[in-house]
Sequence to fold (188 residues):
Amino acid sequence: MSIPLSFLLFGAVGFLVLALIGITRGVKIKERAYQINGLVCILLSVWLVLLYYSQLVLSIGFFIGAAILGLANLSKSIKAASREAVTSHKETDITKPLSVADLFSWGGWFKISTRWGIRKALAAYILFNLGVIWVIPLALLFLNIGSPSFIAIIGVFMTVVVLISSVPIFRQQITKNLPNKMDGNNGN
Fold:
């Protein structure tokens, strides 16, 4: 089995970054669900390293372990993210001007939804996520890691994932947590 090194490198580094983010966030807000998500990412990173060294049986074990742990933690993760969004909404002063930092917090997206309406805010959320996600394939191209066709496949895959996942995530975190559901002339 020959898996391109760029795929394994991209995946392993990506999972390690996500693990670091999950564990750091989990420790910061004292939420075990995020720490477990970080552990799942570490398991997936090890899985890719084992694939590179052709350790198929071990790699399958790590992948299955990550899948089981991730699925077992899924409902806790969703609830934790929802609690975090509600807390962020309560702590956000929507009268303050928008800033770049608002793009990186649910409180900021509450502010944007209040001002622009849910549809425009959702469109901005999708475009922002696509912009952030496309940094990865562009960095791979710039650093000449992997073939351009493989990087294009990564980019298309990530675009599809963002487009499919953005609407339910935004709906779960923003729309369900807004008190008045933004009826009327605010773009809904």
Remarks:
- Residues 56-91 form the longest helix (36 residues).
